[in-house]
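Database export, one record per block. Field names are fixed; values are copied verbatim from the stored entry.
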Amino acid sequence: MAQYGKSEYWEERYTRDPEPFDWYQRWAGLKDTLVGYMQPTHCVLMLGSGNSRLSEEMYEEGFHNITNIDISQVVTKAMQEKYRDKPGMTYVQMDARSIEVPDNNFNVVLDKASLDSILCGEGSTHNAQKVLSEVSRVLMPNGVYIAISHGQPSYRLTYLQRPEFGWNVQVKTVQKPMMGMTASLSADDKDNVHYVYICTKGEGTEK
């Protein structure tokens, strides 16, 4: 099985195959679910951005303040070059377990398959906890962490509903795209939906 939880796996993969690649969903499949929670003026952090087109597709729809982080230096450099003509779209090599930005910095943290990847690796529970703690720290009051996942609520809510975060968690679903459009991390992924976990910091009155 591929070592999705290891940084070395991603460095080798992006070196071997630099073509754009999207896990699970593109923006078109997520937009209707997400627009109620994020606005073009929002400051967005994209976790484990890889070489996905999600940020580009959002940028084209007016989201011009997107910080993309990924553990892979190879893909970060490639994306910096690719999007250097898009002001407000930045790519930084960073480990999501230690996000090097101030507290209360982002309106939205968007995660498409990053939590799932971490949960495939060694020390998965500990690493997931570190990432989610960092996400909570960098979110502004009333900020929203949105995780797109193949993991069912019985497996994911354990991590997301921890009392120290105080998140209000809603679970939505989106239909999976046709085969070949995007890829799945899990060979035994038999549901015909992906789960969208919308976690609002505090009780959050803003929608």
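Remark 1: The helical segments are 7-16, 27-34, 54-60, 73-82, 114-118, 124-138, 153-160.
Remark 2: The mean pLDDT is 90.
End of record.
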